[in-house]
What we know:
The chain has no helices and 20 strands. With about 170 residues, the protein is an all-beta fold.
Amino acid sequence: MKICLKCPYDCLTCNGSNCTNCSPADNRTLFNSRCVPQSGYYDDGRSQCNLCPSTCTLCSSLSYCTSCQPGYLLSPSHECISTCPVRFLSDNTLWKCLPCPYDCYTCDSVGTCLSCNITSDFRVIMSFTGRCLPLEGFYESSQTVALKCPTQCSRCISSQFCTACHS
């Protein structure tokens, strides 16, 4: 007795678990015995593939791009954008946004700080070093935000070590 088995969801026709034909109407193409999404589409586990956002060339969901259209950069949150957000620099070779050094608010392509955030990071730029250093009363934490010195210190290098006290 012969039994007809259902093909995998992505196949139009199959031989066991291998696809032999794909439906162009489903926006799929045959690759290594599977029907994979055509460029610009993603598979959400249903029969028909969905269109990626217009700025993406490849994506794995409506909100997760893996490659962008020309002129767009892949953001840290996997969106295709025209300009990188603060704390990131544009890499026009890889077409993605790369992080600036932790102390920079904005930076150039070699990692020199162009600006600092004095109000939330408590850092000021030192033009001769190209780094954002903690304001007086704060110390280096090797994180974006400089940490506040203990109340008795006007300058410190940690929460435990003052280098200058209030008068």
